[in-house]
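User: For my dataset I need records formatted as: sequence, then structure tokens, nothing else. Please produce one.
Assistant:
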Amino acid sequence: MRSIKTLKLVAVLAFADPCARLVAQQQTASPPTAPKTTAEISGVVVDSLHSRYLAGADVIIEGVKGTLVTDSSGNFKVEGLAPGTYQIGVFHPMLDTLNISLATRPFHVGPDSASFVILSVPSAATLIRRACPGASTSQARSAVIGHVNDPETLQPVVGAEVSIAWIAIEISKETGIRRTPHVMRDTTDAAGASARDARHHRRGGRVSALRSAQLHASVAAGTQGNGRNR
């Protein structure tokens, strides 16, 4: 009788074992979750000239339809991008005035990835070195950079005489308060652009543009940022 019980026990175990394997196969047979195949690109645009973020700038990503606009903190973001190579360009009226372009080099994004990009407007010192290559950093502490355009056609005015006039104020015990007027002149190039460095400290001035010996425009120029005038 003892041997029969033993056989029954073995038979029961042998019968229950296939069922356990069947349950395990049923639990692991669910399909796996499909991996994410898209990517996202986010970034921030910094205005180094005025030590702040560049808000309201148009951001264009090559291969992406539409235009993004940076928020008050200079941020932008786009999602659902296919893996590939992209390039980002930033457009803003201030960049047009400075006659500079702001763009990244082409870069690659893979599936299920997130890329963060920082784009920065050049600092005042960098802009002065570019616009006035012959002036040393110790001499040129500010600059006037801009364009002269025809108000009717909006085309650049070539050969316009641009001048900036300002008064330098010096205070000392020996001479008291001394005011010295200064005038600098330049001529616009084929793009209507003009750039002049100023080798004296100043608080402000007035920029005038002459076209055919007639006054074309006259605006006040005040020092902003790191001593750079617009």
